[in-house]
Design a protein that fits this description.
This protein is mostly helical. The chain is built from three helices and no strands.
Length: 42
């Protein structure tokens, strides 16, 4: 049986596994960025 918590964990890990999202998170770790600054990298 799949619980809500397990489903939530799967969604989170699938999201973080995406290379583009990891790059965005890495940029945000350095300093705050505007949406435009983040989008300018892609």
């Amino acid at each position: 049986m799949v619980t809500d918590a397990k489903l939530h964990s799967q969604v989170v890990f699938r999201s973080v596994a995406d290379p583009t999202r990891r790059q965005i998170l890495g940029s945000l770790r350095q300093r705050p960025h505007t949406v435009g600054e983040l989008a300018g990298n892609f």
